[in-house]
Write a structure and sequence with these properties.
Elements (H helix, E strand, L loop, with lengths): L3 E5 L4 H12 L3 E6 L14 E4 L5 H10 L4 E4 L6 H6 L1 H21 L4 E7 L22 H20 L2 E7 L1 E3 L17 H9 L6 E4 L11 E2 L1 E3 H16 L5 E6 L5 E2 H12 L5 E4 L14 H7 L8 H14 L9
Parallel strand pairs: 1-2, 1-4, 2-3, 4-5, 5-6, 6-11, 7-10, 8-13
Antiparallel strand pairs: 9-12
The chain binds uridine-5'-diphosphate-4-deoxy-4-fluoro-alpha-D-galactose (UFG).
């Protein structure tokens, strides 16, 4: 059944891929974005867009009042863990304060369904791999803490106000739209795969390897890379399960359940692009866990989630297609 869906941060990376999917399925979408990192070019021309900032409660109350929604998907937040350790207040204000304003606007408009973008960062440096949803939540950075706080707020809003909520805990979101229309345009770029592709394009001199003294087979850190289009599908499934009343409050890990080291990713980038990737070893990045791999059995079993694009080859091929066609991002396509 077609729904009215209010999407914060819909012009961002995961947001725009999700907007594309949900619009194709016939849902009516309102995107609420401040365009600090989002791109108008990442949205279909016919989607309804409101420029507003979650930190201003009036902006979001007005937007949601004017566009009554059956459900909210809440992507908007700051995401750079490293930045969060330099300027925590900025993260608490935007990620926590902004979410609180959104929840207030939801209550004011009797909107009771939300899908929230959470993160593997809430687990910190886990002792048991693969990570299940009930693993200890001990974030090692402020970014992860902001996500954990919002999950906890949702718990209380569920109990007290009957807000129905699903938190989706993404592992490393990567890859680009398999149809080549959407990509990743984030400046300054810090994530491994887009940085490696920029090196392949000659836009950066070398790939810096942050630490080769981890307790892993090649000494570099291991992550679970999950394709952004698979994440978009998980949002659809989460929405449907909340709308049907099957789910009322839950959280799911979303990952490929396979770990790759930085060295393995770099090798695959060389294979896919056929380009050279000069590499230099640098010290570890502060707060980086050694190894993060998801157990996503719950998402598969409860939501029926079936990742289709999350093998490393497809991830890098889809990302390479977009980055090689848009070396300078959305505004400067080749
Ligand atoms: N890395 C490098 N060189 C680079 C960039 C990254 O060696 O130039 C390494 C990192 O040290 C890390 C791995 O590559 O070991 C992946 O790093 P990313 O920056 O791509 O991603 P992170 O794992 O640090 O973080 C990402 C998201 C977070 C999210 C987390 C959850 O940015 O928002 O995944 O797993 F919380």
């Amino acid at each position: 059944m077609a729904m009215n869906i209010f999407i914060t941060g819909g012009a961002g990376y995961i947001g725009s891929h999700t907007v594309k999917l949900l619009q194709k399925l016939g849902h009516r979408i309102t995107v609420f974005d401040n365009f600090e990192f989002g791109h108008r070019e990442a949205l279909p021309t016919n989607v309804h867009v409101i420029r507003g900032d979650l930190r201003r409660k009036d902006d979001v109350v007005r937007a949601l009042t004017a566009n009554p929604a059956d459900a909210v998907i809440h992507f908007a937040s700051y995401i750079e863990a490293g930045d969060s350790m330099r300027d925590p207040g900025r993260f608490y204000e935007n990620n926590v304060g902004g979410s609180l304003n959104l929840l207030s606007a939801m209550l004011a408009t009797k909107t009771r369904v939300i899908v929230f973008s959470s993160s593997a960062a809430i687990y910190g440096d886990p002792k048991v791999i693969p990570i299940t949803e009930n693993a200890p939540k001990e974030p090692t950075n402020v970014y992860g803490h902001t996500k954990l706080i919002v999950e906890e707020m949702l718990h209380w809003y569920h109990r007290i106000h009957e807000v129905r909520a699903v938190s989706l805990r993404y592992f490393n979101a990567v890859g680009c739209d398999p149809e080549g229309e959407l990509g990743l345009d984030h400046e300054p770029e810090t994530h491994l795969i887009p940085v490696a592709l920029k090196v392949a394009l000659g836009l950066r001199p070398a790939l810096e390897i942050f630490g080769n003294d981890y307790g892993t087979p090649d000494g570099t850190a291991i992550r679970d890379y999950v394709h952004v289009t698979d994440l978009a599908h998980a949002h659809r499934l989460a929405l449907e399960s909340l709308a049907s009343g099957k789910e009322t409050f839950n959280a799911f890990n979303l990952g490929s359940e396979t770990g790759f080291s930085v060295g393995q990713v770099a090798k695959e980038v060389i294979l896919v692009t056929g380009r050279e990737i000069p590499m230099v070893v640098k010290p570890r990045r502060a707060g980086d866990p050694e190894k993060l791999i998801a157990n996503s059995a719950k998402a598969r079993e409860v939501l029926g989630w079936q990742p289709k694009y999350s093998d490393l080859r497809t991830i890098i091929e889809t990302a390479w297609r977009w980055h090689s066609q848009h070396p300078y991002g959305y505004r400067n396509a080749r």
